[in-house]
Amino acid sequence: MSKTKVLFLCTGNTARSQMAEAFLRAYAGDHFDVYSAGLKPREIDPLTISVMAERGFDLAGQRAKGLDEYLGTVHFGYLVTVCQRAQEECPVFPFVHERLSWPFEDPAKAEGSEEVRLDAFRRVRDEIDERIRRWLQDELHLPIQVPSEPKS
């Protein structure tokens, strides 16, 4: 049985969409093939890697990808934009069953000390985590496979 494909899309594929990809793959990877991309991909933000590692997610194998890698080649059950800009600028995407918009604040825009910036990334990480859990449980009625917490 083939799994439903889900694409998380944001502007740079540096933070929010990477986080969403990791969470959905961990919680429901047996139900979904999960992808992420950016309209203008850049390198994954080191703070994304740090805050996800705090929760036991290793993003070492992930890379920033452009939307063009998937246009016309992959049929997605869900296209989820995780920022307002991607929602507004995403072209008509063929072969998508359902398009969802979950705009989250861009943590990379946080200014201040490293701790202030880390707090912004943590807040957005936790909001994305909560949104994905609610979507799986309340809307899709799927069980969540919670990975074990990292050892301190």
What does this structure look like?
It is globular and about 45 Å long. With 152 residues, it is α/β, with parallel strands linked by helices. It is built from four helices and four strands. It is 36% helix and 17% strand. The longest helix has 26 residues. The chain has one domain: Rossmann fold (3-Layer(aba) Sandwich).
Question: Which key terms come to mind for this protein?
Answer:
152 residues; alpha/beta; Rossmann fold; 4 strands; 36% helix
Report the major sheet.
4 strands, parallel
Fourth-tier CATH superfamily name = Response regulator
Anisotropy-based shape: globular
* CATH domain class: Alpha Beta
Level-2 CATH architecture: 3-Layer(aba) Sandwich
| CA-based gyration radius | 15 Å
Number of helices: 4
- End-to-end gap: 38 Å
Task: Give the amount of beta strand, in percent.
Answer: 15-25%
Mean pLDDT: 89
Order of helices and strands: EHEHEHEH
- Structure class: alpha/beta
Helical fraction equals: 25-40%
> How many beta strands in the DSSP annotation?
4
CATH fold type: Rossmann fold
The largest sheet has its strands arranged as 2-1-3-4
Number of domains: 1
Low-confidence spans: pLDDT under 50, at least 5 residues? none
